Amino acid sequence: MTTNLWVEQYWHDYKLTWEPREYGGVDMLHVPSDHIWRPDIVLYNNADGNFEVTLETKAQLNNRGMIQWKPPAIYKSSCEIDVEFFPFDVQTCLMKFGSWTYDGFKVDLRHKDEVRGTNLVEIGIDLTEFYLSVEWDILEVPAVRHEKYYTCCEEPYVDITFNISMRRKTLFYTVNLIIPCMGISFLTVLVFYLPSDSGEKVTLSISILLSLTVFFLLLAEIIPPTSLVVPLLGKYLLFTMILVTLSICVTVVVLNVHFRTSSTHKMAPWVKRVFLQILPRLLLMRRPLYSADPRKFMTRPCNSRESQTRRTSYDVEFGEQAPQASQQYGGCRIHGYAGKAAAAAEAPNTDDDASSTSTQNPEGTSPPGIAMRLHFCPEFQRAMESVHFIADHTRRYEEHISVSCKRILYTY
Questions:
Q1: CA spacing 20 to 30 A to 158: which of 32, 310, 318, 369?
Q2: pLDDT tens digits along 137-180
Q3: Pairing between strand 2-6 and 72-76?
Q4: SS3 assignment, position 136
Q5: pTM of the prediction?
Q6: DSSP conformational letter for 200
Q7: Both ends of the chain: CA-CA distance in Å?
Q8: What residues contact 83, with CB distance under 8 A and at least 6 apart?
Q9: Which residues lie below 8 Å from residue 266, measured CB to CB, with a gap of 6+?
Q10: Cis link prior to 269 (omega < 30° from 0)?
């Protein structure tokens, strides 16, 4: 702690008395302090090396032998700092003054405002000339007189200790450190709100982690280097950094699972058992009737079970597997052209059916366009429409190019 103060010292020297009438009525003098005796009052807990007052100012001397000396001094005293509740902390620093050479019998050191019978002075420092600090508020400045005995000597050694209690002003640290840290910490929750397809989940998490690291380094520069205690704000930043690191790990796992496909990974048997058999029963859920695989078709439940059939290009075009599918699944209704062919094969022929069949196709089969619309899933149909659109656009572009070439040749 660095303090700029005046050390007011008063003492009586019986050898420096005189009669004013013998010296022309002079009752007060200003003499150089190094020309008279003065007590060697030093700061015991000095951290700078200059234990004494370095500026030799003049002392005020009256005819009764009372000497008043107020030298200015800049002290750097050692102070134990407790940063556990930083920046909402209250620090107490001590300034211990005493004589370096004389004991208590030769120099009886006392505070000038000390009341007889007590060693405590509530206001030990005059704060009338105190300049308000932009970082600290002075709470109290009591002074206590101590008499300490050592084993080597019988006489006491006296010192006066000033206890300076200070409270840190928190506005600067609240606006520039605490609020940004809390805001960045709350952004961690948004990582789980981002969709996996956005591709910014890991980037956001790493950016938050780097921001917290910067604030932690800033905190380490502000507080004094000590290993006795870690401030609560530092613990909060460390805990948040650990949570952000865990969120990055979880995000990586989620993205890994999200972008897995049947062509790159195979689902483990225990995953199928847990998520497809056990959990649906516990949550009273039913499996959907539609299959996500475009090469398979989900049939309606028959005899408390579901059936799937894989369609091939040969089945699509000719429908030769329809009777076998009808025999395999019994009363199950199979969607698509093969199912219709199987139903037509099993149903009795009537005149109306024969006439309708003959009008559809001479060979007794549905037109290819109708078959394509019947046994393809919606995803495949949309893909086919896109392919037709691209082919049509390419054909029109080629026709336009050919017409343009003909016009150019005709011009030449």
A1: 32
A2: 999 999 999 998 888 888 888 999 999 999 999 998 899 889 99
A3: antiparallel
A4: strand
A5: 0.57
A6: -
A7: 97
A8: 89, 223, 224, 226, 229, 231
A9: none
A10: no
